[in-house]
Structures are given as structure tokens and as C-alpha cells.
Amino acid sequence: MNKRLIAGIVAAAACGCMLWQYLIPVEIVAVHDGNTVLVRHFPYLKSRQIDWWEANKEMIKAKYGVPHTIYSDGGYSVFIVGFDDGYRTEPNESLLFPTDEVFCFDDIQTDARCIDRNPLLSVRFSRNTGLTFESY
User: Fold this and answer.
1) Which of 61, 105, 60 lies closest to 86 in space, CA to CA?
2) I need a surface site. Which of 15, 38, 85, 96 has the fewest CB within 10 A?
3) Rounded to whole angstroms, how far apart are CA atoms 91 and 62?
């Protein structure tokens, strides 16, 4: 009886987690540098990430102008980055934290202009390779 109860609780928790992630919409927090999109609640599965990009790329282009940086051959790159803990100040070089663990944006004029490095998806297009996705 206890084994069935524990298995039922674990199954219910797993289903609840999957349902929660499926129902929570992806939130676009900000766009920087013309090709970096900061998001919350991004899907874990690569197939769902690609589906999200395909469903929202026209809205992102219309609302935010991404991709803004288009290469001379017509290609572009878009980086989807997690915005977990919000903006923070740039770490001091003399501290134990290396600065390659943060992304800092030059288009923000305040001290809190960096985010923790959390790349989620890279979308690239070129005439030679076509559309490619890299999930992290």
C-alpha cells in the first residue's frame, strides 16, 4: 500500500510539474543589442523551444525589431537568454568571480546592466547553412 501511495504522489508531482511548465507562457523581458532576447519561463525541451521561436518570430520581429543585426549575406543570429535573477552590477575584477559569467549590455546606462550568463537557445540563419538552432 505504501509503495502505491508513494508512486502515486511522485507521478502526480511529475504531471503537475509538466503541466505547470506547459501552461506558463514565455515572458519576453527585454531585448538588447538587436539580437539578444531576455526571457523567463522558457521551455526545457529543444522541440518546444523551436516551436516557440517559430510561433513568435514574426511578433518578435514586429515588436522588437529582432533580428536587428543582419549580416551582409542576409544571415542573422538571435540569442535567447534566461533572465532569472534580473539585472546586477558588473562584478569587480579583483573578486573571485570571473566576468565571463555575466553578459553586460552597453545600451543600459545604469550600474545594474549585467545578467548572469544563462544562454538557452541560439537561432542562426545563413544562405549556406539555412536555419539552425542550438539549445544549451
Assistant:
1) 105
2) 96
3) 34
> In this predicted model, what pLDDT tens digit does every residue of 89-114 receive, in sequence order?
877 665 555 556 788 888 888 888 88
The CA-CA-CA angle for residues 59, 49, 127, to 5°, reads 70
Q: What is the DSSP string of 69-119?
A: -B-TTS-EEEEEEE-SS--EEPPPTTSSS-GGGEEE-TT--SSEEEEE--E
For 37, other C-beta atoms within 10 Å of its C-beta total 25
Evaluate the CA torsion angle 114, 26, 78, 44 in order and state its sign.
positive
Residue corresponding to grid cell 543582419: 70
